[in-house]
Amino acid sequence: MRVLLVEDDEMLGDAVKTHVHRQGHAVDWAQSRDDAEASLEAVAYDLVLLDLRLPDGSGLDILKSLRDRRDETPVIIMTAHDQVSDRIAGLNAGADDYLVKPVDLGELQARIHAVSRRYGTHTLPALVINGISVYPSERRIVAGDGAEILLSSREWAVLDRLVARKRAIISKAQIEEALYAFGAEVESNTVEVYVSRLRRKLGKEAIETVRGVGYRISTDAA
Amino acid sequence: MRVLLVEDDEMLGDAVKTHVHRQGHAVDWAQSRDDAEASLEAVAYDLVLLDLRLPDGSGLDILKSLRDRRDETPVIIMTAHDQVSDRIAGLNAGADDYLVKPVDLGELQARIHAVSRRYGTHTLPALVINGISVYPSERRIVAGDGAEILLSSREWAVLDRLVARKRAIISKAQIEEALYAFGAEVESNTVEVYVSRLRRKLGKEAIETVRGVGYRISTDAA
DNA sequence: GAAACGTCTTCAGGTGGCTGTCAGCTTGGT
DNA sequence: ACCAAGCTGACAGCCACCTGAAGACGTTTC
After folding, report:
1. Is position A68 within any domain?
2. Which of A196, B48, B82, B182 is deepest in the core (most CB within 10 A)?
3. Does residue B38 belong to the interface with chain A, where contact is any CB pair within 8 Å?
4. What is the tens place of the pLDDT at every residue in B135-162?
5. pLDDT given at position A132
């Protein structure tokens, strides 16, 4: 997932960003209201973590303007104190959930998971190889440090076949079948080339070759 | 194979686990939905046996979230009663087969076999030597601790001949015949070499030499 | 429209695992 | 002790696989 974190506190922001990164999500961190609105305009996010107390205006206004634009991106509010009025205002303005500071990272994780599930987006990677998270139905993988790596459509198609049945050995023929939906034959080592490219992005050990049989995801890669 | 059993009933779970374990598979047993999801996240399985009625949520959700993640691990459902609606919902959600409780262990075995066969993996080892399972038509053997040992195609061919008729003594000539489909003569001790290589992987006692006659699989190896 | 860019496919040279061969050694029978 | 049969480490050749490069094609940018 792609997450926008709106938080002016350096310490807290850093902790949250790191933690959410570790869950395998791409995190942009906006430290002011202007920052946040610029980001929201430029990028489509799957989730927004929103602090209501910002130096240059209320976080609530960000949420309101989002919903005014009929943007239904899930928003989780982080309120500075357990102020009932804040929470009510936030939820009324269209927030999906809220957290009370000091933020417990485990709780944050659980709430992100719950909200995302409600929206049908994926928060759990289908697979983690070498600390690199692979997500289903997304042409992107996330490295351990949070950096995003984009996959081309063919690269992703190959990886998808391998990940769908993790413990199985998949033959080149099976992979080709998935790549070229009937008819469109290919007469060279295309699959080998894409495996090679995937290895460059995922790490050499990520995909195991079984000579004369096919390929398989390495299950033991830590 | 590595199997995840999701079942909250102690009695039934124990019986099923024991039975499946006897077939030579590694079985993890999850007794709750949370347990099951944690296991699925951490480990790649070849098969999931899924009870739909769990204390902390529906087993169907587990299946749905698996398929949402484009995970195609085979799933066999166990429904509490012969509820048509359950079965239909399960199959629609992407289950591969279903069992009706009370579970008949023989039927369970047959269905596991059928589902696995559809996916090209074998569930019944042709033979167990030294706690190492040998599967038909696969160039792979599995040690007692679950570690996999890959065989080269020639190694496999030799082992296959020996396993095909377990108690019989197979001559070198017969084995050579299987290795080199007519014409392609071999004029050295190739068979001896491959027996040696196999012994290195299977254990010294796995293959017995009958001087002047041929080889045979040791049946007494525990 | 032209240039810059990214993707897909093909090809060619390189690499490493698999294979068959042999030589020297071990084992079993007499 | 001797011989025949079998065992196994070493090695050269082969073939499956790997990978860098380049051309064809489509897309974006100016």
Report:
1. yes
2. B48
3. no
4. 766 787 777 777 788 899 999 999 988 9
5. 80
Rounded CA–C1' distance between A163 and C11, in angstroms: 29
Nearest nucleotide (CA of A156 to C1'): C7
CA distance A201 to B138: 30
Mean pLDDT of chain A: 82
Q: Which residues of A touch B44 (CB under 8 A)?
A: 166-167, 217, 219
Say how far B40 CA is from D2 C1', in Å.
65
- Our count of domains for chain A comes to 2
Low-confidence residues in chain A, pLDDT < 70: 57, 81-83, 117, 120-125, 136-137, 142, 144-146, 181-186, 219-222
Instruction: Give me the CATH number covering residue B151.
Output: 1.10.10.10
ipTM score here? Answer: 0.82
Residue A24 belongs to domain with CATH number: 3.40.50.2300
Q: Which of A73, A88, A119 is the last residue of a domain?
A: A119
| Boundary residue ending a domain (A102, A119, A136) | A119
Q: Spell out which residues of chain B touch residue A174, defining contact as CB-CB under 8 Å.
A: none
- Please judge whether A168 and B68 are an interchain contact, meaning their C-beta atoms are less than 8 angstroms apart: no
Mean pLDDT, contiguous 10-residue spans, chain B (222 residues) = 92 94 88 88 90 81 85 89 76 90 90 86 71 75 77 91 86 86 72 94 88 83 45
- The answer on B114 and B139 residing in a single domain is no
pLDDT tens sequence across A134-169 = 776 677 776 766 677 888 889 999 999 998 888 889
> With a 7 Å cutoff on the CB, does A218 touch strand C?
no
Range of the domain at B210: 127-217
- Strand C at less than 7 A from CB of A183: no
The per-residue DSSP string of chain B comes to -EEEEE---HHHHHHHHHHHHHTT-EEEEE-SHHHHHHHHHH---SEEEEESEETTEEHHHHHHHHHHTT----EEEEESS--HHHHHHHHHTT-SEEEESSPPHHHHHHHHHHHHHHTT---S-SEEETTEEE-TT-SEEE-TTS-EEE--HHHHHHHHHHHHTTTS-B-HHHHHHHHS-SS----S-HHHHHHHHHHHHH-GGGEEEETTTEEEE-SS--
Closest Cα in chain B to A117: B65
Considering the domain architecture, whether residues B146 and B48 belong to the same structural domain is answered as no
User: Which residue approaches D20 most closely, CA to C1'?
Assistant: A193
Residue B84 forms contact with A (CB below 8 Å): no
**B39 near A CB under 8 A:** no
Domain check: are A99 and A145 in the same one? no
